[in-house]
Design brief:
Rossmann fold; 2 domains; eight-stranded mixed β-sheet; five-stranded mixed β-sheet; 16 strands; binds adenosine-5'-triphosphate; binds magnesium ion
Length: 422
């Protein structure tokens, strides 16, 4: 017998039991973003490979080893998007969205990275992110931090810590890079293979190493904050004042460099200690050079992206408490006439009661088996239509969750009853 085909390693089905949590999260997040005037953009999951090489940077984990890249039938090199900022910038340039305009946009969707699958790290995963284009000041950086804070409140998530840092401008980073390379070269014996390679290509990324054996040497490294000029310092200071005024607690983490090349000045992460090593649930920062780098006019920009699977893990503890989307009612139908009239009744109820979640029994079967299915559906009430009910012109309503007596209602009264339960 042929072996069953399974999903690709690191890529997961989101099953119907789980999707209420996803919908809860997506709905709350969308409401918050609406409240800040952000509008959704949907870009293709496939882009030209060069888009990511030119934006994310050639010597990053993503471009060096994580992209799903292939030639299509015309021989063009395409890549499944590993993130969506590059796509947003590409679309913005292509459609002239940035030309003397302020754009606040957000996106959601699947991203693809060929990483080693583990809890909180998958090969297909989902991000929700926001980007603001055309604003250079620390005020919009602050907004980019306040929005996620409002997500946590809307989702009932607590215990997330905000870490912030500044990377300065590319000139300031170049100066710092010299100092860092000088320091790390003195400690070359303590570097792991990857870091020794990075020392030649992208030394700042060594600060981002997740190898615990590198911890000591990283802790002794010079700090980028000390190489900053006046403007970058003032920008960071203003952001910190804004955070204080808004009552946001945070820590300055001078080792926070972020995985992507395109960041400048403000970077931040929201982290939890409840997910082990994969503790960052939201990461973002300013990337003023990217639009120009991809062929647009100079346009300041800032954004963040959240890992939805990690947030879902945090929310999972609350699945039963949230009691999401169980049906209000389940129609049980006994006899041929009821079988015929049931769908008509069900459609009338749906017409009259927007928001009603009603399952119509299909497939016949005994009273007992229909009740069993009604119970298993999680519905609050069984609406019974049988010969007796048809003769009397009523529907019997039986609570499946309480010991309340069965009641009979005519259709109008049934609508009233259900309305009071919505
Ligand atoms: P990490 O250092 O954990 O690899 P990153 O710097 O590569 O993270 P970003 O590119 O900034 O991550 O992505 C933003 C967020 O998307 C991350 O903070 C995380 O929550 C989520 N994320 C990134 N990669 C994955 C993945 N492979 N599986 C699940 N979530 C991910
Ligand atoms: Mg990564």
């Amino acid at each position: 017998m042929a072996k069953n085909i399974q999903a690709i390693r690191g890529m997961h089905d989101i099953l119907p039991d789980q999707s209420p949590l996803w919908q809860f999260l997506e709905d709350r997040v969308r409401e918050v973003l609406d409240g800040y005037g952000y509008r959704e953009i949907r870009t293709p999951v496939l882009e030209q490979t060069d888009l990511f090489k030119r934006s994310i940077g050639e010597v990053t984990d993503i471009v060096e080893k994580e992209m799903y890249t292939f030639s299509d039938r015309n021989g063009d090199s395409l890549t499944l998007r590993p993130e969506c900022t590059a796509g947003c910038v590409r679309a913005g340039i292509e459609h002239g969205l940035f030309h003397n305009q302020i754009q606040r946009i957000w996106y959601r969707g699947a991203m693809f990275r060929h990483e080693r699958p583990q809890k909180g790290r998958y090969r297909q995963f989902h991000q929700i992110g926001a980007e603001a284009f055309g604003l250079a000041g620390p005020d919009i950086d602050l907004e980019m931090i306040l929005i996620p804070r409002r997500f946590w409140a809307a989702l009932g998530l607590t215990g997330l810590e905000l870490q912030v840092n500044t990377l300065g401008t590319s000139q300031e980073r170049a100066i710092y890079r010299h100092e860092l390379v000088a320091y790390l070269s003195q400690h070359e014996g303590e570097l792991d293979d990857e870091s020794r390679h990075r020392l030649q290509t992208n030394p700042l990324r060594i600060l981002d190493s997740k190898n615990p054996e590198m911890k000591a040497v990283i802790e002794g490294a010079p700090v980028l904050l000390d190489s900053l000029g006046g403007e970058s310092r003032a920008h960071f200071e203003a952001l910190r004042e804004g955070l204080d005024a808004a009552g946001v607690s945070y820590v300055v983490n001078p080792r926070l460099v972020r995985g992507l090349d395109y960041y400048a000045r403000t970077v931040f992460e929201w982290v939890t200690n409840r997910l082990g090593a994969q503790g960052t649930v939201c990461a973002g920062g300013r990337y003023d050079g990217l639009v120009e780098q991809l062929g647009g006019r100079p346009t300041p920009a800032v954004g963040f992206a959240m890992g939805v699977e990690r947030l879902i893990s945090l929310l999972e503890e609350r699945l039963s408490e949230l009691q999401l989307a169980s049906p209000h009612a389940y129609i049980v139908l006994m006899g041929d006439e009821a079988q015929a009239k049931g769908p008509v009744l069900a459609e009338r109820l749906r017409d009259e009661l927007p928001g009603l979640r009603l399952i119509s029994h299909c497939g016949g079967g005994s009273f007992k088996s229909q009740f069993k299915k009604a119970d298993r559906s999680g519905a609050h009430y069984a609406l019974v239509l049988g010969d007796d009910e048809l003769a009397k012109g009523v529907v019997s309503v039986k609570s499946l969750r309480t010991a309340d007596e069965q009641q009979e209602y005519d259709q109008q009264a049934l609508i009233g009853f259900l309305r009071s339960r919505l």
